[in-house]
Design goal:
Blueprint (H helix, E strand, L loop, with lengths): L1 H58 L5 E3 L6 H18 L2 E6 L9 H12 L9 E7 L4 E6 L9 H16 L4 H16 L8
Length: about 200
Amino acid sequence: MNACNESITVLNECRSVQLNFHCNKLLCTTIINFKAMKKLLFIFFSIPVLFFLISWYAVQPKNFVIDQSNILDSTQRKKLNDLYVNHEKLTTNQVVLLTTDSFYPDSTIEEYSTHQFNAIGIGRKDINNGVLIIFSAHMKKVRITTGYGTEKVLTNAIAQSIIDSLMIPQFKQQKYFEGLWNGSIAITKLLEKPENKIR
């Protein structure tokens, strides 16, 4: 009788162990399923947010005109900026206009333009297709600085020709927008030619 009771006790203990094992297994499965569900819900709700952020960023106007000297009115700034934005869409090249009254902390426009070009980060890093137009009405200086990729097409000689023939004559008459516009049109038209694609 005792042996029988012991057998029943052992059997009950085995069943208890099996039951606990199944419960633990079920609990683990439930936890795993819960974690998986959390991940799925996170992904599900993240996708619309991601699309929203991408769409929001895409429609934000990029500011390629930095008019520190305040020599342009809002209409002129927008016209130049729209030109640069459309040029980037067509070519991926980036053209930035910066006006300034001082080259501090640099002493020359050459040093200042190089530092500003790198600080702003103009153009794509892989092909260096940036252009920076720097103009100072106060210092009576203008310069076109190019990335290593862009300078293969927009050479120093061509850039100087654009400055001398299209920009300076307007600047001498204090027609700052006209000079910047003429120079910008010449630059973008040159770079938008199929044979001048920066690679």
